[in-house]
Amino acid sequence: MSLRLRTMIVLASLFCTVPVWAAQLSRPQVEYSADSVMQTEEMTTEQHVYVTPAKERRETLTGSGDGSVQIFRYDSKVMWMLMPSEKMYMEHSMGKAAANDISQWDFQETVMGEEVLNGVKVTKYKTIATSTDGKKYGGFSWRTKEGISVKTDLLYKEGNEKKRMMTEL
Fold it and tell me: Given Cys at both, which of 18, 34, 60, 114 links 169, Cβ 3.0 to 4.6 Å?
């Protein structure tokens, strides 16, 4: 299995859990598509996203032309990760698995104020979430009145391990 594929699988399993249940709290109520940039300590990933209130598609671009497609069906509670160059896919349930079960998390969200970001009027929020098993994430998000997350800056902590993820449309 290629290093790129292993990296995508690890990132999907780590970072897809937080956005999946966080997104379920406040799914946008409008359709949109945009270019998205996600940064972690390890890498920067560019994606094109297509979003509806019940579905989401994320096409990942890589330097060599390889890539993956993630399809989230919030209405069916399933996620597919397609890897065309590897001729394979993975299916993951977004049901009541421990990582996705929002009842296992305590959320505290505070409005920090109004801003203009990338020419769009947004509200800045500070969010802190703690799970019953001690996992934590916190940071800031900038969302439109329709619920579109224009930017996020999150720190995820599990035990002594910390991961930072920033995304921006």
Answer: 34
Two tokens, residue 1? 């299995």
CB-count exposure of residue 159 (10 Å: 0-12, 13-18, 19+): exposed
- Check pLDDT > 60 for residue 9: no
In one-letter notation, the amino acid at residue 136 is: K
Burial class (CB in 10 A: 0-12, 13-18, 19+), 92: buried
Quote the DSSP letter at residue 85.
Answer: G
The dihedral sign for the CA sequence 134, 23, 43, 128:
negative
Could you write out the three-class secondary structure of 24-41?
HHCCCCCCEEEEEEEECC
| Residues 6 or more apart in contact with residue 17 via CB below 8 angstroms | 99, 100
Residue 87 has pLDDT above 70, yes or no: yes
State percent of the chain over pLDDT 70: 76
Token representation of residue 31: 């359709």
User: pLDDT over 90 for what percent of the chain?
Assistant: 41
Q: What's the DSSP call for residue 66? A: -
